[in-house]
Design brief:
The structure is a single chain. With 403 residues, the chain is an all-alpha fold. The protein has a single domain (3-179, 198-401), classed as MFS general substrate transporter like domains (Growth Hormone, Chain: A). Helix content is 77%, strand content 0%. Helix 8 runs antiparallel to helix 13. It starts with a helix and ends with a helix.
Length: 403
């Protein structure tokens, strides 16, 4: 199968599997009104999704070094779809929502990075780096569609129907995965020692540098994604507007998220041309500066605020594919699954914590004015600033040394 066809199938499955991802974050204002949730409680429900992910990723992604990733992917997509359907039928408040979102996150652990392994096992050379970039970038498309679907279905019928539709879409992700060809003999190298041993991956300093920098990036990215709709709802209300240019806050959130697709791909191309670490450092520092500014700028006219949010949306995603491609390139051939497990484990541990921290900061700062949102979003950018320093201090890959 041609590399483009493999990438298309993997990206299609990726988008479908992400249908439940933003259903709760996109509807935080709805659930805060319906269930009387505080910002901290909403942050917990948003973050617990990634706690479920973190619980499953050390096993499910590491097992791709010894098992067929397609089997792991299919079972996990069905699990995540069932959890979303369960949310539609059973969620009645904070605790039930917490449990069901954690279960959905466990399903994501067996699809996101496992799907990336489906690509890297079947494509080599520069096609592999570009395949990683496209696959990673399509997270933005899946997330944008998840936000749009949640908002529109809830507006037309109600939130249970939004979660049910997301669950069915997620389960359908098994179809393109089953259409992928089998891996050629000799491509996948089984690891020596225990299949679930992460220590060799942790000793790989060049790969670990990308893992840690990715974690700093994820802190900012997923905290921003979790609170994006709520932030825009606040900003529109602050200006006394329900819509801007005919679009509601969740429409604008979807458009901002879609910007991650070209940003991630172009960020990876910049890394291939000008050096991965140099490009990543510039991108991450610009993203940090914008995160430190965005919340405080919510009192600006909506047109200027949305323009600033669009620039931030570009830079917050421009490093994503390149960080992941760097980790894959630096991984030992027999420990790619373990390296990606560490990548996800570190990154999504922070994805669990950052929405909660942002919610707590928002509550402590008052939660209803530009100053409170400024501090909340600044708490995301401060951690992202550590990424360039980690890349500068830890060991370089042969790719970096050749530049």
């Amino acid at each position: 199968m041609h590399p483009i066809a493999i990438i298309v199938l993997a990206c299609l499955a990726h988008v479908l599997s992400l249908a439940p991802n933003a259903t709760f974050p996109a509807l935080i204002p709805v659930f805060q009104e319906t269930w009387d949730l505080s910002n901290a409680e909403a942050g917990w429900i948003s973050g617990i999704y990634y706690a479920g992910y973190v619980a499953g990723v050390p096993v499910l992604v590491t097992l791709t070094d010894s098992l067929d990733p397609r089997r792991i992917y299919v079972g996990s997509a069905v699990l995540a779809g069932a959890a979303s359907l369960g949310f539609a039928l059973l969620a009645e408040g904070f605790w039930s929502a917490l449990a069901l979102r954690a279960l959905a996150g466990l399903g994501l652990a067996g699809t996101f990075m496992v799907g990336l392994r489906l690509v890297t096992d079947r494509i080599g050379g520069q096609w592999q780096s570009r395949g990683v970039a496209w696959y990673t970038a399509f997270f933005s498309i899946g997330l944008a569609l998840s936000v749009m679907m949640a908002g529109e279905i809830t507006r037309l019928t109600g939130w249970p129907e939004a979660f049910a539709a997301a669950g069915l879409a997620c389960a359908a992700a098994v179809l393109p995965v089953l259409a992928l060809p089998a891996v050629k003999a000799g491509v996948r190298i089984r690891p020596e020692g225990h299949a679930l041993d992460l220590r060799p991956a942790l000793r790989n300093r060049p790969a670990l540098a990308y893992n840690l920098a990715y974690a700093c990036h994820i802190w900012e990215l997923f905290g921003w994604r979790a609170w994006l709709v709520a932030f825009l709802v606040f900003a529109f209300a602050w200006h006394g507007a329900d819509h801007f240019a005919g679009l509601a806050p969740h429409h604008w959130a979807s458009l901002l998220l879609i910007l991650g697709l070209p940003a991630s791909i172009l960020g990876n191309e910049a890394a291939l041309r000008w050096g991965r670490r140099r490009s990543l450092s510039v991108i991450m520092l610009i993203s940090t500066a914008l995160a430190l500014t965005l919340g405080f700028a919510s009192a600006l006219p909506l047109a200027l605020l949305l323009a600033l949010a669009a620039v931030h949306a570009v830079f917050v995603m421009a490093d994503s594919a390149s960080l992941t491609a760097g980790a894959v390139a630096a991984a030992a051939p027999d420990r790619k699954g373990a390296t990606m497990a560490v990548h996800s484990l570190l990154g999504f541990t922070l994805a669990f914590i950052s929405p909660l921290v942002a919610g707590l900061v928002l509550d402590l700062a008052g939660g209803s004015d530009p100053m409170a949102w400024g501090f909340a979003l600044a708490s995301l950018g401060i951690v992202a600033a550590a990424g360039p320093f980690i890349l500068a201090r830890m060991g370089k890959t042969p790719e970096d040394q050749a530049r």
